Amino acid sequence: MSTNASLFERAQRVIPGGVNSPVRAFRAVGGTPRFIARAQGAYLWDAEGRKYIDYIGSWGPMILGHGHPAVLEAVTRAAQEGLSFGAPTEREVELAEAILAQVPSMQQVRLVSSGTEAGMSALRLARGATGRSNIVKFEGCYHGHADALLVKAGSGLATFGHPTSAGVPPEVAQHTIVLPYNDTAALEAAFDAHPRELACVMIEPIAGNMNFVRAQVPFMKRLRELCTRDGTLLVFDEVMTGFRVALGGAQSVYARAIPGFAPDVSVFGKVIGGGMPLAAFGGSRDVMSQLAPLGPVYQAGTLSGNPVATACGLATLREIAKPGFFDALAARTDALLDGLAAEAQAHGVPFSVDHEGGMFGFFFAADLPQHYTAVMATDKERFNRFFHAMLERGVYLAPALYEAGFVSAAHGAGDIDATLSAAREAFAAL
Ligand SMILES: Cc1ncc(COP(=O)(O)O)c(C=O)c1O
Fold it and tell me: Of 221, 313, 342, 427, which residue is most buried, by most CB within 10 angstroms?
């Protein structure tokens, strides 16, 4: 039988770092990644036959858990009808309608194959629609690996950034301003320094790539005002939060707190594909009419709106739109995080938690961080020991302190109890 270690060794010979996406390599926490052989419901089994309660859920898509019968049936039927046509299908229209039905800020949506592609396309759309080149993003937010978005802050808050990856031309990074998250003064300074020059501000409204940090309501309100004032498009990256923190995504959460609130452009991925490669971006009819073939902004894809992926996404959205789905999911997430916080407190471990719908974060710090620097200042050694202690006890958490976690509808009360028992032992051993 292959072991995780033998597979990792073999993988490293033929795949850079042994993985097809860097965080899978366990570099942040050390140790050997688990090679997953199969999954069902809330569980994964690795190549050695060990079972884990899965709180990664493929980094967000598996909101129904693995192997949901309605999803499997839809995918199987779609595969039998044809894997790819490169021509329009009714199912694409159905999926677009199903997405738009839950996201009133969008009148039209285009389907693509990955969150990176959706974010990159939204950026081009914003630039094309405004005729401006400069953009703002926030430190700690990840929007996929397009050149213009792999950028860190420049020397001053309102100055343009530097690439965070080799291979990104400085000329590209020079159009991106990177600001600290939740910092209203920095945001105002950037708009003041670049009046009517910013094509868009792109934000993860609840950031899931620096663990779990939500944009504060006054910050979001000011961001919306500044964008409206300057004709800058507010782009919500809901690849992680969309159909995950609530049926209407994070924008529905902010719309409850800020009357009339809506972003201009939204980006989705993960849950809308239900585990298949599918993502989307959308906005008003006016903005979306800038896209080819209607308008001058080019964007295309051989596998965009793929018939099997759209079947998977549609079946998933139908399940999560059922009455009570999100209440039950949120209650389960609540029980998990309340329980973890209580166990940490019982062991005198400084710990804080936050969650919304089926997405959560926890920090080895007494107070919830509000931005990237604060997240990275939380106790990494403790996080890593906790991660490994949980993994040894059959609980599969994200292998880095800057990643969010996910609960699915398949996680039952017994799974939460088992997780909390493991956590009790893990906290005691920290
Ligand atoms: C908020 C956000 N945007 C964009 C992406 C990129 O999506 P993909 O990995 O599908 O390219 C991710 C991926 O994790 C994400 O979390």
Answer: 313
Q: What is the pTM of this model?
A: 0.98
Distance 47 CA to ligand 1 centre (A): 27
Give 277's contacts (C-beta < 8 A, 6+ positions apart). Answer: 113, 114, 303, 306, 309
Residue 195 has which token pair?
A: 């009046």
Using the atom order of ligand 1, give the atom closest to the CA of residue 144. Answer: 6
- DSSP-derived 3-state class of residue 297: strand
**Cα angle vertex 308, ends 304, 314, to 5°?**
90
Q: Are 340 and 417 in contact (CB under 8 A)?
A: no
pLDDT (0 to 100) of residue 268: 99
Q: What is the pLDDT at residue 300? A: 98
Per-residue pLDDT at 296: 98
Q: Amino acid identity, residue 325?
A: F
Active site residue 270: yes
pLDDT at 201: 98
- DSSP string covering 7-38, please? HHHHHHHHSGGG-SSGGGG-TTT-SPPPPEEE
Q: How far is the CA of 167 from the centre of ligand 1 (A)?
A: 20
Low-confidence ranges of the chain (pLDDT < 70): none
pLDDT at 156: 83
- Long-range contacts for 28-34 (Cβ within 8 Å, ≥24 apart)? 28/384, 28/399, 28/400, 28/401, 28/402, 29/383, 29/384, 29/387, 29/388, 29/399, 29/400, 30/384, 30/388, 31/388, 31/391, 32/4, 32/5, 32/8, 33/4, 33/8, 33/399, 34/4, 34/391, 34/396
- The rounded distance, in Å, linking the Cα atoms of 223 and 258 is 12
Ligand 1 surroundings by CB, under 6 angstroms: 59, 114-116, 119, 142-144, 204, 208-209, 237, 239-240, 269, 279
User: Is 354 designated active site?
Assistant: no
User: Cβ contacts of residue 14 below 8 Å, gap of 6+?
Assistant: none
* pLDDT value for 383: 98
